[in-house]
Design goal:
Organism: Caenorhabditis brenneri
InterPro entries: F-box_Sdz-33
Radius of gyration: 27 Å
Protein name: Sdz-33 F-box domain-containing protein
């Protein structure tokens, strides 16, 4: 049972405060404005969760970290400069991880009707102006925090909205980890309707995701940085739209056809593995690139068994950008306007200076012979003027 320390005489309060460690001082200061004021009277003027050392924070239980962190940002109205990232996982077990250089706290979500199924430390957590119930359990030796809402998905959306609306925090990574159709559509539609910024999107491998759900993700999710997919579909899966991301990475790209490649004219990098692009397809891509259909393209990596020599035969070279030495060979081809593309049959990537204004370009490898997966790659780096 606690006691009202702020009712102690000032002299006694100063003695007590001198015996509190930094975490205990932060805990007291977050009780109320009056408690924080009394600490200042006692000479503790810079008490804040933001001022704790990282090692001290990481030594706390995750539920304690989350509680103190939310109270502090609610008091301050701002986030510290700790490189915060929100990672959201959509699947059968919804999760948001709050990560920074001081801590990493995964938060799971449960339905209120299921709260009695969990045994652990119970709290009412203040998120903005709301008090929500949480339970911290230990599962297989790992602490697991669950926030309970009317539904799991609504709880996840509420926390995302809190960080977006209060602190303008984007979603660093949106992961799809399971084929929960209802949750996928609910989260994606909400993100689009609120214009929430999502930097990176990743579809995990070996998950029970239907072709319809995957097509919905491709069609409706946009990423300001990178879209990655590790999911494997057969040749019969087709998608005719664009992938809205600066960079595309497809690990299992048997479904990624010439049509997908030619429609990717708003992407900076395109990497497709385990595809089988034919010579005529790669040459058609190069033809479209030469006439300016890929104005912002910087790099392309496409799985194929065709040698770059066969793909680029007949193309006009930029002799001033070519290089042929004992160490490596670099071949540059004319593109649209002043742009040019670089391919290299060497296995190692190199950086070199193109001269003039200190601009640098990268040459990337083209493996002319199949690797262990039975495939090689056509790789080209583009320098746009």
């Amino acid at each position: 049972m606690g006691f009202p320390i702020i009712k102690l005489p000032v002299v006694a309060l100063k003695v007590l405060v001198d015996h509190l460690n930094d975490v205990e001082l932060v805990t007291v200061s977050l009780l109320s404005r009056q408690a924080a004021w009394f600490l200042k009277v006692c000479g503790k003027k810079s008490v804040s969760f933001f001022h704790l050392e990282g090692s001290m924070i990481r030594a706390l239980r995750k539920v304690r970290i989350l509680e103190l962190f939310l109270l502090e940002i609610n008091r301050r109205g701002e986030l510290p400069r700790w490189y915060f990232e929100l990672c959201c996982s959509v699947g059968s077990d919804q999760c948001i991880s709050i990560s920074c250089n001081a801590f990493d706290v995964p938060i799971y979500f449960g339905a209120l009707e299921d709260i009695e199924k969990f045994v652990g430390v119970r709290r009412n957590l203040k998120i903005g102006k709301l008090l929500v119930p949480i339970v911290a359990t230990r599962e297989y030796g790992v602490e697991k925090i669950r926030i309970f809402w009317n539904t799991k998905t609504n709880g996840m959306i509420a926390l995302m909205d809190y960080f977006k609306d209060t602190f303008n925090v984007p979603i660093e990574l949106l992961k799809f980890t399971e084929g929960d159709t209802k949750a996928i559509k609910r989260v994606v539609n909400h993100l689009n309707s609120t214009q929430t910024v999502v930097k990176n999107v990743r579809v995990e491998s070996n998950i029970a995701l239907s072709e319809d759900d995957f097509e919905f993700i491709l069609k409706n999710v946009s990423a300001t940085e990178k879209f990655s997919s590790y999911l494997e579909f057969g040749w019969n899966f087709t998608y005719n739209g664009k992938i809205r991301a600066k960079n595309i990475y497809i690990e299992n790209g048997r479904w990624f056809t010439l049509r997908n490649l030619l429609s990717s004219n708003e992407n900076e990098t395109i990497s497709v593995h385990r595809s089988d692009f034919q010579r005529y397809e790669l040459r058609e891509f190069l033809r479209q690139w030469k006439i300016g259909k890929f104005p912002i393209l910087k790099e392309v990596n496409l799985a194929t068994n065709v040698s770059f020599i066969d793909v680029t035969s007949g193309l006009k070279k930029r002799l001033d950008k070519c290089e042929d030495t004992f160490w490596r060979q670099v071949v540059a081809f004319r593109g649209h306007g002043d742009s040019y593309g670089i391919v290299s049959p060497t296995r190692n990537n190199h950086r070199y200076n193109t001269g003039g204004r200190g601009i640098q370009a990268f040459d990337v490898h083209d493996i002319a012979y199949p690797d262990q997966s039975g495939q090689g790659y056509f790789c080209m780096c583009v320098h746009n003027g």
